Amino acid sequence: MIKLVVCYCLLFSYSLFAQCNTTVKIAVINNSPPYSYLQDNRYEGIDVDIARKVLQAVGVCFEFVEMPNVERAKRYLAMGRINMMMGIQYTDAQNRSAIYSLSYRDNVQRLFINKAEFLKKHTLIELLKLEPLILFDTGQYAGPEIDYLRSEPSFRDNFQSVATMSQRLVMLSREHGDISIENELAGQYFICEQKLSTILMHPYLVQRDPVFFIFSRKNPILTEDQRQQLDLLLLAETEKITTEIE
Fold first, then answer.
1. Residue 179, exposed/middle/buried by CB under 10 A (0-12, 13-18, 19+)?
2. Greatest CA separation for the chain
3. In angstroms, rounded to a whole number, what is the distance separating the alpha carbons of residues 100 and 123?
4. Inter-residue contact 31 to 194 (CB < 8 Å)
5. pTM value?
6. What distance in Å separates the CA atoms of residue 153 and residue 169, rounded to the nearest whole number?
7. Using the 8-state DSSP alphabet, how is residue 141 labeled?
């Protein structure tokens, strides 16, 4: 039995490190908990953990490369300077420069509010009648309803673009805004960490979109067979997560 275990470990180690003449460079946006963040000089988070798990199972070498923002990472991916990104929504424009994996989780966006009276309103139109200032991120697609309302002259001034989630939620806590559109988990995580007890999450669902790993078309590193293997692993991982939630 011991010999069998040793033999298996050696085979596994070979499959893991045999292709280390090339390394998949994965863009990581630091300080984006719970999806990616640096802890004790090691990247952690939901996206990081899934990427690490499936790439190790495929048997390729990889490293995380910190990027200041998603826009910079997308430019580097298009140029082939990085090979992979995590947690990306589908767009036709992005599809021209990237190869998409199967989806492995959803990006759920909700309204975060600082007034309990807003809970009595059940739609965005009802909320907008109260003339709130809504903080949002132009780099994050929030769905067709938000796009339509932002383009309407009667509502255009109710929307203000603010670069980062931390800025938006701090502004909300200080009543420099009334509503902020945020990722459900990331918003709750930040509020809990920063003890922003005056902020509530409204039950209204703004948008739910699948997210993917994407690979540079110019320099994907992974072969087509390896990407297919990765997709099968992602499918199994997603089914496991769904079963645990149920």
1. buried
2. 74
3. 33
4. no
5. 0.82
6. 26
7. -
Q: What angle separates helix 224-245 from helix 46-58, to the nearest 10 degrees?
A: 130
Question: How would you class 92 by CB atoms within 10 Å of its CB: exposed for 0-12, middle for 13-18, buried for 19 or more?
Answer: exposed
**Spans of the chain below 70 pLDDT:** 1-20, 239-246
Average pLDDT, the chain: 88
The span from the CA of 93 to the CA of 79, in Å, is: 15
pLDDT digits (tens, 9 = 90+) for 223-235: 999 999 999 999 9
The closest of 35, 51, 31 to 166, measured between CA atoms, is: 31
* CA atoms of 57 and 240, how far apart (whole Å): 16
Buried b (16+ CB within 10 A) or exposed e, 113-140: bbeeebeebeebeebbeeebbbbbbeeb
